[in-house]
From TrEMBL:
InterPro entries: AB_hydrolase_1, AB_hydrolase_fold, Pept_S33_TAP-like_C. The keyword Hydrolase applies. Residues 86-179 form the AB hydrolase-1 domain. PANTHER family: ALPHA/BETA HYDROLASE DOMAIN-CONTAINING PROTEIN (PTHR12277). This is Alpha/beta fold hydrolase. The keyword Lipid biosynthesis does not apply. Gene3D superfamilies: alpha/beta hydrolase. GO terms for molecular function: hydrolase activity. Keywords: Hydrolase. Residues 204-280 form the Peptidase S33 tripeptidyl aminopeptidase-like C-terminal domain. Coiled coil: none annotated. Transmembrane segments: none annotated.
Length: 286
């Protein structure tokens, strides 16, 4: 178990210029407020690439890939020259270079990595995205760049990796870090942060189910985990303020061949650069 100093990083605080009009719309019409909330839920924040990720950005081969299943384009990063390839999947509002420390260590151990900016993330075009876009992107990348030895996903990327395996992604093993779990819980948490009445969580779920003609719970990580036979390493920090610890424990419970590593004081993002955790990943890959 990794122990670090107490992590005080909290989840992003929602600004009033978003909360106030959302609240006003809820007084006008529940349908209007639901539509507004859905727009917010599917709009990631694009962050400028930090200096620490520039080396991977500059040394990688970058190509645009069209994902026909969702009619969107994504930017793909090829990093390293080995034929032994590992797929890296960032989380919500992340980017293809976010797992750079893991990528560096993998390349040093004789692998190459393929990562990508999901639709509306990083350098990829678009303004909105949803988990199904991540999954479709993964499956298209496998067709164009696979096969992959391993898939590693962070946060929403972890959920997407499990769902992609469920839908045909072929990998020997998988690693999920700070992964979310139950879709309805994620919607509940979002609606709570938006300071809307709890019933809006159900409205939002129905909105997405009608729009995409799917059952949202089918994308819950534990549901995918039930069908994953591959060895899966589940990593989560006890002080993760973005995704609760119970998510990792629940996912692990539903895996046929899972390992669980819990850390302390690393939070939701610092965990990606922790030397001890990266070494555990290398050992797991074998």
């Amino acid at each position: 178990m990794t122990k670090k100093s107490h992590n005080k990083t909290q989840s992003l605080k929602i600004p009033q210029y978003i909360l106030v009009p959302l609240k006003i719309s809820s007084f006008i019409s529940s349908k209007l407020a639901t539509s507004f909330a859905a727009k917010l839920f599917t709009t990631p924040i694009k962050h400028k690439i930090p200096t620490r990720e520039l080396e991977m950005d500059q040394k990688s081969i970058q190509k645009t890939l069209y994902v026909g299943a969702i009619d969107k384009e994504i930017l793909v990063y090829e990093y390293g020259k080995s034929e032994k390839k590992i797929l890296l999947v960032h989380g919500w509002s992340g980017r293809g270079t976010q797992l750079f420390k893991i990528a560096d260590e993998l390349v040093a151990h004789g692998f190459s990595t393929i990562s990508f900016d999901a639709p509306a993330h990083g350098k990829s075009v678009g303004k909105t995205a949803i988990m199904m876009d991540f999954i479709a992107s993964i499956l298209e990348i496998e067709k164009q760049y696979g096969p992959f030895e391993i898939a590693i996903g962070h946060s929403l990327g972890g959920m997407s990796v499990l769902n992609a395996i469920k839908r045909g992604l072929k990998v020997k093993k998988a690693v999920i870090i700070g992964s979310g779990d139950i879709v309805q819980d994620i919607l509940d948490d979002f609606i709570s942060k938006m300071k809307l009445k709890p019933i809006y969580s159900q409205y939002l779920c129905s909105y997405f189910e009608d729009k995409y003609q799917v059952k949202m719970n089918d994308f819950s990580a534990y549901k995918a985990a039930e069908e994953v036979k591959n060895p899966v390493l589940v990593i989560h920090d006890k002080e993760d303020h973005d995704v609760p610890l119970k998510a990792a424990i629940h996912i692990h419970k539903h895996l046929e061949n899972g390992q669980l590593i819990l850390t302390e004081g690393l939070g939701h993002r610092k965990i990606l650069g922790d030397k001890h955790i990266i070494q555990k990943i290398i050992e797991f890959i074998g």
